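Below is how a single chain appears once it has passed through the pipeline. First comes the sequence as given, then the structure the pipeline wrote out for it. We keep one example in the README because the format questions we get most often are answered faster by looking than by reading.
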Amino acid sequence: MSDEKKGMFWFVQGNVKILMLCRVLWSASTSIIYPFFSLYILALGGTSTEIGLINSLGILAGMVLYPVGGYIADRAGRVKLIGYSTVLYAFAHLFFVIANDWKVIAIGQFFSQLLLFYMPAMNALEADSLPPGVRGKGFAVMMVVPGAVRIIAPVLGGYIIEWFQNTSGQSSDQALVLAVRICWSIAFATGLLVAWLRLRYLKETMTEEETTEKFSFAQIPKMVMPAYRSILDSIKWMDKGLKVIVVIEMFASFFIAMSAPFYVVYAKQVIGLVESQWGLIMFMSGLLGILIAFPLGATVDKIGPRKMILLGMTLAPIVIWSYQYAGGFVGVLLILCGVTICNNIMMPAFSTIIANIIPRNRRGRLYSLIGERGIMISFGNFWGGGFLLFPPAALGSYVGGWIYKLNPNYPWMITSGALVICLVLIFLFVRNPATAEQ
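Resulting structure:
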């Protein structure tokens, strides 16, 4: 039966539907406050260097157990690891609720990112659950549906902060801290609900023949060394095209992480925007992302991922360079809409080309090393990635605090130059695979 007869979104069923629902719930809670994470650090006594340090610690923590998560996903299955680890991840957010200075935020960021080691399993489950012929549309839909909620959340977060600042009788920073703590409390409760849904409704995609071990947290210490030894095996397995993509990702992650936490800081300190304006910009750029995500994802399936990656990588350096000339609300809005367009061009394309290269029985381990999204321009915290990307991203995030302190314009100048180099490397060395893996 053709896709047209099945319906446009016939693949949104089973695991795909549950994964999207859980992302919607997460987006409804965490996206209210994550866009203001750097401002929370400042309000609790941190500086630009502490913002860089905290983000760097989070990235390094994520690196520690990522190979273990990928190893477990391929040896013991995806679902139990995803569900039980989500419970622990939710509890780590309590550090953000009780934070009384930036050091407690640093501890929370470390543990929350450490416990995200289930992400390779979830990325593998997502790729397993999407048929090869519709992966471009599928990855796009799985971005756009949670995005429908995510675009509203920052607006709400900005107005919540502003309401507390106007009515609480406290200083601007104290009111921001109070608002953020309330929002993190809601996110913690939502995380527990998401964990239950994942354990109750997700279906395992690995067969009994493919799984050689039983999942148990007690077994994790025994899996650490085999997981790390498997890194070398996974690197050796990669073909030339995938190795080139990984090198480009590693290079780009340094510079993207360097600038990501400082978009909102620059907007407030240099351009002069307030929190509600930043939230509105997040809403409008997110709305644009929703409108264009599915058509661009379908275009990936039609013309191939390589052409879309080249298009996005051509536009991205121009857009990022322009941020230092934004000037006001409209300028910031236009530039971040440009970033959104670039991401919606590149992310489904990178996700498709990577999924098409890697066979199912290696996805957990490979995703734990390289992630599943390729290059994504973050304008908040640095998101996603894998074991091989975390070290350069952590270093970039730490260095970014000092670079921003040296000159607030330098992050955008340096990041845009680095992305030009990535464009050249992709043009010269990245090709679509001849056959897509199931």
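Confidence is low (pLDDT under 50) at residues 1-5.

See the next section for the split statistics.
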